[in-house]
Structures are given as C-alpha cells and as structure tokens.
Design goal:
The chain is mostly helical. It contains three helices and no strands. InterPro entries: Cent_Immune-Sig_Mod (IPR051176).
Length: about 130
Amino acid sequence: MKGENESKHNPAKHWGHIVQFMISHLTSIAFPQGQLNEDKLRCKLRVLENQLQACAQSYSKECVKKILIEMEDQKQTYEQKAKEALQKMLEDKLLTEQQLQNSQVSHVLHLALIQSNCDKENTRVRERR
C-alpha cells in the first residue's frame, strides 16, 4: 500500500510508468516480418505524446490543487492560532488592567488609612497640649 501511494505522489515514478507503457506499445506495433510500420509507429507515437501531454497537464493541475488545499488548511490553522493568541492577549490585558485597578484601589485605601492614622495622631497630640 505504501508503494502505491509513493508512485501516485512521486512524479519520477509516474513518468517512468508512462515511458514504459509507451515503449511496450511502440514495440508491439510490427508487421509479421518483424519490421515496424513507420507510419503506424509515428501515428501511435503522436497519440501517446498527446496522452502524455494531457496526463502531464492533469497531473500538474492535481498537484496545484493539492498544494492549494494544503495552503488553505495552513492558512486556516494560522488564522485560528492568531485568533487564539489575540484572545489570550486580550484576556491578559484585561487581567492586568483589573490587577492595576485593584492595586490602585488598594493604594488609595492604604493612603486613606495612613491619613486617618495621621489625623488621629494629630488630634491626640493637640489634646495633650
């Protein structure tokens, strides 16, 4: 099964099979005397060349189609990863902003507590006088 897949995806093996096919067809065109009929041979050669050209064009289109499909899959994968990365960055940004806000609130409360303690201390100092 692996060999079949390799020959389907390996252009060198594919062309090798086509050339072998052409040679076997060309050598089978012979008169009983063993001589090749030149006209028949040329005609068959033209037909085989046309088939080879059509096969080459078809094979190229299949390769291009396969590559385009793979590229589209990669594009979708990259887009999904980019969306996930952006989502993560947004979540991190929101978390950081929340932490900053909490820190600011904490500092304000801490400063208010310090101010309150200072005010109490000032009041005690005044009362002692």
